[in-house]
Amino acid sequence: MRPEANDVFTKLQEKLLPIWRSVREDDTFEHTSLIVPSLSVDQEELSKVQGASFYEERLLFALIRLRNPNARLIYVTSQPVHPDVVDYYLQLLVGVPAAHARRRLKMLCVYDDSIRALTEKVLERPRVLKRLRGWIEKHGPAYLTCYNTTMLERRLALELEIPLNGADPVLLSLGTKSGSRKSFAAAGVPHPAGFEDLHSEDEIVDSLCRLAEIRPGIRRAVVKINEGFSGEGNGLFNYPESKTDPEAVSRQLYQLQWPSAQENTRNFLRKYAQMGGIVEEMIEAEEVRSPSVQMRIHPDGKAVLVSSHEQVLGGKTGQVYLGCRFPAKESYRLMIQEQAQRIGDVLSKEGVIGRFGIDFLLTRSGGGEWQSHALEINLRMGGTTPPFHALEFLTSGELNAESGIFHAPTGQEKFYSATDNLKSPAYRGLLPEDLFDIIIANKIHYQPDSGTGVLFYMIGALSQYGKLGMTCIGNTPEQADELFRRTVALLDRETDTGGQAHGELEPLFDNPVNME
User: Fold this and answer.
1) What is d(CA 345, CA 358) in angstroms, rounded to the nearest whole number?
2) How far apart are CA 135 and CA 148, in angstroms?
3) Model pLDDT, residue 509
4) Is the distance from CB of 185 to CB of 203 less than 8 angstroms?
5) Half-sphere exposure (CA, 13 Å, Cβ side) for 317?
6) What is residue 511's predicted lDDT score, i.e. its pLDDT?
7) CB–CB of 348/297 below 8 Å?
8) Region for residue 237 given its phi and psi (left: phi exceeds 0; alpha: psi -120 to 50; beta: otherwise)
9) Which fold has domain 287-510?
10) What is the largest CA-CA distance in the chain?
């Protein structure tokens, strides 16, 4: 499965290792970082995520790279980013005058809000490509960072003749739902009973029947499209009384439950035939948790831990990502980190590089030991990437890989509660400058002296969709949670929502941080 050694792209990727080593070893190394935050995923699935076009702003934390006084950064978007939003991040760069950083930053907009991947929009504009080549040639070696990598990003790297800081797209099958199950098996990591590499309705029905034979007491199963996004593309199946009767199961298949009201079974089966997918058991227990682990495989092939999180899931089927807490619970954190390391080692041997996330399901009954079940690999940045970037961006600290705890340079432990789904109809119409007026007047913005406070992102989605993201950083889990509650209450008060707008975010409040 490894890319061919003589492949042109593989040869280009060889340039990434010396750049990466130089950046790590010399904090004044002159180079250019090109950020194209394209969500190059199935656009039909992406369209179900409200304000998805503004997810391009989630990688603005990459401006942290401008701390290096000789680093330059080019950030490309489909639509303009409000200048106040850019200034908001630049003024948080400790030790670097905002004006100096701004001179080394190029914000490039292609002025195209069509429902297509940003990378595709860049590739179809020869003058934009020429402009990018000119900027790159002036300022030392360069590399490309994207939200995820597909053949579009591969082509862009080849067009610009710079390495791609991410997995070779020929390896993307490793990150599908089917590929994830195979990687878990190769790593010897527990995962739900099920079947992969399915395509037809008949194969789904047959697999559901076989699953009921393996698990006689099963009540529910999940039917997943290989390339679903953020919990979309997952259908919840409730078994009929005759669990192994193909005709009964086939009829029940048309009663699948969806996270989105936009989905229906016929449309789902059409996409399933195109992309393939899996069927697996819905594991149920007295206590259920949904943590994730972020990993990164360096260009030298070493797989390392980035972070762990408690994910908050919601939506009609309870499978849509809403937010997270950092870090994952102490009672199972080391277990899932160890399992993630084994999975990372498997992916490294296949030639994967870059960031990726692994979702787990943790269960226990009767107060016994937690049982871990790996659910899927996301060979891309995900919902937990921006909050952790925010923590690094603001504190200049680092994670202790043995404990999974983040420490500021002073040694102070750091925690956060975060969401990219804070929304209310009452927030619509708020401009970025309105948000900044509110947070500054109420002193909830991040305070460098205390190392605590709130950082906002996806601010561009606020006026049109009443939606934004935020990371609430505290010196204790309780402080981070309280900042989250206080910020939501403040925005509700300022927009007079009456506190009725955040039903989907209730899990962030209702599940205490220290649940044990």
Assistant:
1) 13
2) 23
3) 46
4) no
5) 24
6) 42
7) yes
8) beta
9) D-amino Acid Aminotransferase; Chain A, domain 1 (3.30.470)
10) 69
In contact, 452 and 479? CB cutoff 8 Å: yes
Taking the C-alpha atoms of residue 88 and residue 92, their distance in angstroms, rounded to an integer, is: 7
Reported pTM: 0.87
Going from N- to C-terminal start, the domains of the chain cover 8-166, 193-281, 287-510
What local confidence, expressed as pLDDT, does residue 508 receive?
A: 53
Q: Minimal CA–CA distance to 326: which of 387, 392, 416, 454?
A: 416
Burial of 276 (0-12, 13-18, 19+ CB in 10 A): buried
How far CA 334 is from CA of 180, 291, 329, 405, 487, in Å, comes to 21, 12, 9, 11, 31
Whether 139 and 30 have beta carbons less than 8 Å apart is answered as yes
**Under CATH, to which class is 8-166 assigned?**
alpha beta
| Three state DSSP letters for 5-44 | CCCHHHHHHCCHHHHHHHHHHCCCCCEEEEEECCCCCCHH
Q: Are 93 and 474 in contact (CB under 8 A)?
A: no
The pLDDT-based confidence of 306 (bands split at 50, 70, 90) is very high
Q: What is the pLDDT of residues 166-188, one digit of tens each?
A: 989 999 899 899 999 999 999 99
Residues 6+ apart with CB under 8 A from 502: 422, 423, 424, 488, 492
Torsional sign, CA 349, 355, 356, 360: positive
pLDDT in tens, 424-456: 999 999 999 999 999 889 988 888 888 899 999
Residue 512, pLDDT > 80, answer: no
Note the helical H segments in 217-362.
246-253, 265-275, 330-349
- What does the block give as tokens for 272? 């399933």
Q: What is the mean pLDDT of residues 108-134?
A: 94
What lies within 8 Å, CB to CB, of 25 at 6+ separation is: none
Query: How confident is the model over 309-325, as pLDDT tens digits?
Result: 999 877 665 667 788 99
Strand partners, 36: 146
